[in-house]
Amino acid sequence: MTKDIDQNRLSTRQFIDQVRKRLCVQGRPDILLSRLWIETEPTDEPFVLNVPIGPEYTVGVRPVNVDFWNDPALFERTIGQFADALINLRDAERSILNYVEDVRLQALKAITSARDEGFDIGLEGVNLRPVQAIHLSQDGWEEAASYIVAVIKVRHLSSALQYEVSELQADNPQ
Q1: Helix (H, G, I), strand (E, B), or coil: what is residue 168?
Q2: Taking a C-beta distance cutoff of 8 angstroms, is the pair 75, 69 a contact?
Q3: Which domain holds residue 70?
Q4: How many CA atoms are closer than 13 Å to the CA of 146, on its beta-carbon side?
Q5: Number of domains forming the structure of the chain
Q6: According to the model, what pLDDT value does residue 43 have?
Q7: Which of 19, 77, 91, 162 is the most core-located residue (most Cβ within 10 A)?
Q8: Contact by Cβ (8 Å): 148, 131
Q9: Distances (CA, A) of 54 to 41, 58, 133, 144, 149
Q10: Nearest to 124 by CA among 104, 109, 106
């Protein structure tokens, strides 16, 4: 193990500890935060925090600035953004789950219609697009939740008659 990898792990551990402390200071020690949610590879970001939304979904929360580790003021601001994002995600969880379920049902309806017309198409799944923490740290969970976008994965035949999966973003389930 190289020193850089050890330092990164230590830094992510410190980051999680600082976010937990901030959640406690903000009166939200009830919000779960696990180091197991951190994904450090393969990404251009220092890490992505994969926050569970209900039992089936996760939303990747990313820092805005990749160099926040070396600037104490930026580090502190990033800690606050992640704490606020976690609070808003927790408060918006039911709304987000309803949105994703609406998207899934509308996708199934469209796919069923396409299959009835003879297209070889199927739903691979619905996920949530990663979001920067600053967007999820808005005042109020309603504003923060407006940055959540569902991604529909559809399996279909390509022009070369090979199965492939395409992704479609669903800003609005209708």
Answers
A1: strand
A2: yes
A3: 3-170
A4: 5
A5: 1
A6: 61
A7: 19
A8: yes
A9: 24, 8, 19, 17, 16
A10: 104
Tokens of 136: 């999820």
pLDDT tens digit sequence for 80-127: 999 999 999 999 999 999 999 999 999 999 999 999 999 999 999 999
Q: Tell me the C-alpha distance between 25 and 44, whole Å.
A: 31
**Strand residues in the chain grouped as ranges (E):** 38-39, 48-53, 57-62, 121-128, 131-132, 150-157, 163-170
Which of helix, strand or coil describes residue 59? strand
112: tokens are 């069923």
Q: What is the DSSP string of 120-161?
A: -EEEEEEEE--EEHHHHTSSSHHHHHTT--EEEEEEEE-TTS
**Cα–Cα distances in Å, from 132 out to 61, 135, 136?**
6, 6, 7
Nearest to 16 by CA among 30, 43, 37: 37
Let me know: does 120 contact 156? Beta carbons within 8 Å: yes
pLDDT of residue 28: 96
Tallying the residues shown for the chain, one arrives at 174
